[in-house]
Structure to design on (517 residues):
């Protein structure tokens, strides 16, 4: 069953200072099944973030519709949790208060909130840091908190916009395993935007490759690697096959994007 | 010395103190050494003596309290009006478009030039003094708060929306707590300016306050008293600044984290 259905969604940004309008996303259709982990892979400027932001309700489509569980999406809401590339924890709240932000918004009782927050603190391995402020944490820990904050709200879909883009390689690999582990255990519908090919394969059950601007989906590849996935998978021949294929797909687009 | 190289806390303290000492030494040299006639500038010793006399014999302590009350009273009134309006302007662009041009204009109206008008309207009582401070502070606070709130990081606001916040909740749970330390900093700054307005308000048509004492002393050529009055204002300013910083540090521990 399709959890999320996107129908001929497009986005055209008006021209700046009388310039020509920019088509960020050509009419795109897409359907995401329940509990799919979909990565959206593309060169920079291909409209992948625009697509995600429209699904989140943070950007208005020029045309097309988005249906989540059969209901039309018209603005941002707690049913679509989002993790951003920039660090968006609220600096005046502690780690625990940040994770509780959406629950407080729902009017959840304090005792229940504490329980959920504690559970997510454990899941992202931040026990002992509940009372710290975001500034006191490393980038990786901040993004772990951001993931916990989005998941604690129990959204129907989790949207991630290059969440590990600003992290170093080692931290990024650990974060991928953490997120994958949570998904394998709890099952959740996830849309994950990235420009990193390895990342797009390792964590995904399905990978969408986008073309250079104006963006459209040029390939839709099922990543049928077995679960649970271990980091050693990245050096297996099956993984390499996917990598070779995606590299080929994305390279042509990167060349196009660079020419602009 | 290297550009931007930090110095130790003790070195900072001593350097700061030494300029005060140097300043008083130069003053003492100029006056006690006979380089400046006594009638224009009293020496530090006369100043301290005059000050002591003012405090013990002429009830200057009461003047100080009255002036502080006027500054604080007018300033608090301005804060009550300006902070909510500034937050609304920063958060809602139509509200900003409505008020901003007028407030920008009104900000340049000199508060001191309103003194004669205010005397006409409100008489010579406390209301007039409070109004001078109010007019001098309110527009500045409105504009500065509106700018700070308007520049809130968009991604934090977006994060709140994706966590289920509504429009009013974004104002209450993101815009206000995020900018509270900056707003407190603005208030600290404007309170300093309010001190200059109160003296102007007291120079004309007042029978109490530090400004009134200064004008009275001018008639008597008592430069020692005038300087003492000015220094008292400086010290009060310094103390209130310090208190403001202390309270801010207590209220917003996350800024220092």
């Amino acid at each position: 069953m399709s959890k999320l259905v996107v129908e001929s969604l497009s986005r055209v940004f008006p021209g700046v200072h009388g310039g020509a309008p920019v088509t960020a996303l050509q009419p795109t259709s897409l359907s995401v099944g329940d509990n799919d982990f979909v990565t959206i892979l593309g060169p920079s400027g291909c409209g992948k973030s625009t697509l995600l932001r429209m699904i989140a309700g943070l950007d208005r489509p020029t045309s097309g519709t988005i249906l989540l569980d059969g209901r039309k999406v018209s603005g941002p809401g707690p049913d679509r949790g989002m993790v951003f590339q920039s660090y968006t924890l609220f600096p005046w709240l502690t780690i625990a208060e940040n994770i509780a932000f959406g629950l407080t918004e729902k009017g959840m009782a304090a005792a229940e909130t504490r329980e959920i927050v504690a559970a997510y603190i454990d899941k992202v391995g931040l026990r002992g840091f509940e009372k710290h402020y975001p500034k006191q944490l490393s980038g990786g820990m901040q993004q772990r908190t951001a993931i916990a904050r989005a998941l604690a709200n129990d959204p129907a879909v989790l949207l991630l916009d290059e969440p590990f883009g600003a992290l170093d390689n080692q931290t990024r690999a650990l974060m991928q395993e953490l997120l994958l582990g949570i998904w394998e255990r709890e099952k959740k519908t996830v849309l994950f935007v990235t420009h990193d090919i390895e990342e797009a394969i390792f964590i995904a059950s399905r990978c969408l490759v986008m073309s250079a601007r104006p963006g459209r989906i040029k390939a839709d590849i099922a990543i049928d690697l077995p679960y649970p996935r271990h980091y050693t998978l990245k050096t297996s021949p099956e993984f390499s096959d996917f990598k070779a294929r995606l590299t080929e797909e994305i390279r042509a687009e990167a060349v196009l994007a660079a020419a602009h | 010395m290297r550009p931007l190289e930090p110095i130790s806390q003790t070195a900072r303290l001593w350097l700061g103190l030494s300029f005060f000492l140097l300043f008083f030494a130069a003053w003492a040299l100029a006056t006690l050494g006979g380089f400046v006639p006594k009638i224009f500038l009293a020496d530090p010793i006369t100043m301290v003596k005059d000050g002591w006399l003012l405090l013990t014999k002429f009830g200057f302590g009461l003047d100080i309290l009255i002036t502080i009350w006027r500054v604080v009273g007018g300033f608090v009134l301005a804060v009550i009006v300006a902070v909510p309006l500034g937050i609304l302007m920063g958060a809602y662009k139509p509200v900003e478009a409505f008020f901003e041009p007028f407030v920008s204009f009104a900000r340049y109206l000199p508060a001191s030039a309103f003194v004669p008008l205010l005397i006409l309207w409100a008489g010579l009582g406390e209301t007039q003094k409070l109004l001078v401070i109010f007019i001098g502070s309110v527009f500045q606070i409105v504009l500065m708060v509106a700018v700070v709130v308007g520049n809130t990081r968009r991604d934090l606001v977006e994060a709140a929306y994706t966590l289920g916040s509504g429009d009013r909740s974004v104002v209450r749970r993101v815009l206000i707590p995020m900018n509270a330390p900056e707003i407190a900093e603005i208030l600290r700054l404007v309170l300093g300016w309010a001190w200059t307005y109160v003296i102007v308000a007291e120079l004309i048509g007042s029978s109490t306050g530090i400004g009134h004492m200064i004008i009275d002393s001018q008639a008597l050529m008592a430069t020692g008293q005038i300087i003492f009055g000015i220094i008292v204002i400086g010290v009060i300013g310094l103390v209130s600044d310090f208190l403001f910083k202390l309270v801010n540090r207590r209220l917003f521990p996350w800024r220092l984290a």
Notes: The radius of gyration of chain B is 23 Å. Chain B touches chain A at residues 153, 155-156, 158-165, 169, 173-174, 177-178, 180, 252-254, 257 (CB under 8 Å).
